[in-house]
């Protein structure tokens, strides 16, 4: 194995759902749970947080690219896995802390993070995509805050991230109505950096990553920090409020009904 290209030594769980390769200063993190449309259970969310926090202290890494294998970027939390565990996977507060750790790691990293979004970015998957410093999507991609459809509220900092980019009115529409936002519209509203044909997305992201990796590391770090501190001042408060609210909702009858309806492919009947 060359010194320029190395496979990351992530815990065993990652080999089955998270691929990490570092080459020429670019760390590529691929969520690869295609049978679950790249939904993240607690173990894989924790592993993703580990990768990102470990990268913060690795001077060989100058840029990170997060992508999803197959037809989706990430479809959020793996609710099927949680349902199969019968609520025994972890307390809601632990699940929320795991997701918040990922979001905070992306924001706090000293190097830029690029999200390469192909297909669906749903729930916390949308939050991860929008937390990245640069988000590029394929023409067929879309963002979806599906939380309300299953009796939950937005999390992963999305209640602050989206409003900071496109304003309260548009963010409220996404959060309360649970509608898809196509990538082209997301780009036109300033929510993501750009949209590419599906066949050209990876090449474009690679070109941007190479440019950043060859740039002045310290200047890029300080620029990222200044932009983050100027635009995401509400993020920590949002994550705290989301944890409190979501922890309550995850115990609610509406959430049980929403998940049951989703898994059995029928409309939910909230408040029955």
From TrEMBL:
CDD domains: crotonase-like. This is Enoyl-CoA hydratase/carnithine racemase. Gene3D superfamilies: 2-enoyl-CoA Hydratase, Chain A, domain 1 (3.90.226.10), Lyase 2-enoyl-coa Hydratase, Chain A, domain 2 (1.10.12.10). One of its GO terms (molecular function) is catalytic activity. Belongs to the enoyl-CoA hydratase/isomerase family. Pfam families: ECH_1. It comes from the Bacteria.
């Amino acid at each position: 194995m060359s010194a320029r290209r190395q496979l990351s030594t992530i815990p065993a769980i990652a080999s089955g759902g998270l691929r990490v390769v570092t080459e020429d200063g670019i760390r590529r993190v691929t969520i690869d749970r295609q049978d679950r449309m790249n939904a993240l259970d607690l173990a894989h969310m924790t592993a993703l947080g580990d990768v990102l926090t470990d990268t913060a202290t690795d001077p060989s890494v100058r840029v990170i690219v997060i992508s999803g294998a197959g037809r989706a970027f990430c479809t959020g939390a793996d609710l099927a896995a949680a349902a199969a565990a019968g609520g025994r996977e972890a307390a809601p507060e632990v699940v929320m802390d795991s997701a918040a750790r990922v979001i905070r790691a992306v924001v706090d990293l000293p190097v830029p993070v690029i999200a390469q979004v192909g297909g669906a970015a749903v729930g916390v998957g949308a939050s991860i995509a929008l937390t990245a410093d640069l988000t590029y999507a394929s023409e067929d991609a879309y963002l979806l805050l599906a939380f309300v459809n299953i009796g939950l509220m937005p999390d992963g900092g999305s209640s602050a991230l989206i409003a900071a980019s496109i304003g309260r009115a548009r963010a409220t529409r996404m959060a309360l109505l649970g509608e898809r936002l196509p990538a082209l519209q997301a780009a036109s509203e300033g929510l993501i950096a750009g949209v590419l044909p599906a066949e050209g997305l990876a090449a474009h992201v690679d070109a941007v990553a190479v440019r950043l990796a060859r740039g002045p590391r310290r200047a890029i770090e300080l620029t990222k920090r200044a932009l983050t501190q100027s635009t995401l001042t509400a993020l920590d408060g949002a994550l705290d409020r989301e944890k409190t609210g979501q922890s309550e909702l995850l115990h609610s009858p509406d959430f049980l009904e929403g998940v049951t309806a989703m898994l059995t492919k029928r409309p939910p009947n909230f408040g029955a």
